Amino acid sequence: MTLAYWCVLAAILLPYAFTGFAKFQGGFGLNENKNPREFLEKLSGARKRAHWAQQNSFEILPGFAAAVIIAHLAGTAPQATIDGIALAFVLSRVLFGICYIGDWASARSLVWFFGMGCIVALFVGVAG
């Protein structure tokens, strides 16, 4: 498996780290797990922002996975390039979550645009 494919797996698992922060920061009881969506919607502050980071991470995941798969199938870009862009995307998503939880809205937006740029780069890189 290529590094880019491993990055897809990392991007699939990353939202659960944000969910974990939202759920387990400050304690977690079994009753909260009976209605987790309701519980997450009632959070506030950093925990609520972690939940939002989780949601955004799931929203962007299909585009990233498709871009990696298409880049591999096209076979026109060097594997090292695909791997590097995929790794940059995953790192941007980690940074995005940190910015979201930290309530650094402007930095978060910049990091989000960088991540989207990585997805576009995977498509454009294979167009050649």
TrEMBL record:
Keywords: Membrane, Transmembrane, Transmembrane helix
Coiled coil (residue ranges): none
InterPro entries recorded: MAPEG-like_dom_sf, Membr-assoc_MAPEG
Pfam families for the chain: MAPEG (PF01124)
Entry's localization field: Membrane
TM regions (residue ranges): 84-103, 109-127
Keyword 4Fe-4S: no
Chief location of this protein within or outside the cell: membrane
Alphabetical list of PANTHER family matching this protein: BLR7753 PROTEIN (PTHR35371:SF1), INNER MEMBRANE PROTEIN (PTHR35371)
Protein name as it appears in the record: Transmembrane protein
